[in-house]
Amino acid sequence: EVQLVESGGGLVQPGGSLRLSCAASGFSFSDSVMSWARQGPGKRLEWVSAISVSSKNRDYADSVKGRFTISRDNSRNTLYLQMNSLRVDDTAVYYCADLVGRTTVFGHWGQGTLVTVSS
Amino acid sequence: EIVMTQSPDTLSVSQGERATLSCRASQSVGSSLAWYQQKSGRAPRLLIHYTSTRATGIPARFSGSGSGTEFTLTISSLQSEDSAVYYCQQYESWPTFGQGTRLEIK
Question: How would you label B4-39 residue by residue, b for 16+ Cβ within 10 Å and e otherwise?
């Protein structure tokens, strides 16, 4: 059974940083393109970032480019999202997901971790 | 950015009946369209991708159709557990989601 478990969320002040983690099991993590998505309060789902199996290719939504960094450790089956210069509008539940094949279809999702940016 | 618009915002249908949910793209996405189900307090679940291909374990009463800019998710023989918010998502370009349709089972 595919399991994705996010952690690292919490309350942070504007301008602060957080690092999210996503522990994966039940599938071949090292062969899977991975992604982060988020859902702010009352907002639609939003893709945030994606990373290739080798970490060579990393893509970001314009809203987070230059502030967020996606990474992965295939030896630990773990995906990360380093979030710097956080803004109030980054407040959301953050989900990790594996992507289907070479598409940006989100195959399996974790349960999410809440990030609240507030003073 | 391709904007996805779903209709209606809320749909109330009796158990055992059929529900039809619509999704429109601001420009053509070909067949690169997925549907997700999100129950209250839970993570989204992939239902359908490539417009009409059901994900593993999804029952046949969930079906998708359409192409270009107009898409439909049909759920036949509605069951109480189908109560959820349904999102469409295009992946022709950087992925974007619709605002969701809340399906209520009467």
Answer: bebeeeebebeeeeebebbbbbeeebebbbbbbbbe
Testing the interface with B: which of A2, A5, A45 to mutate, by most B Cβ within 10 A? Answer: A45
Per-residue pLDDT at B41: 86
Determine whether the interchain pair A45/B97 forms a contact, defined as Cβ–Cβ distance below 8 Å: yes
pLDDT tens for B22-32 read 999 999 999 99
Spell out which chain B residues touch chain A, with contact meaning CB-CB distance below 8 angstroms.
32, 34, 36, 42-46, 49, 55, 87, 89, 91, 94-100
pLDDT digits (tens, 9 = 90+) for B86-100: 999 999 999 999 999
Region for residue A35 given its phi and psi (left: phi exceeds 0; alpha: psi -120 to 50; beta: otherwise): beta
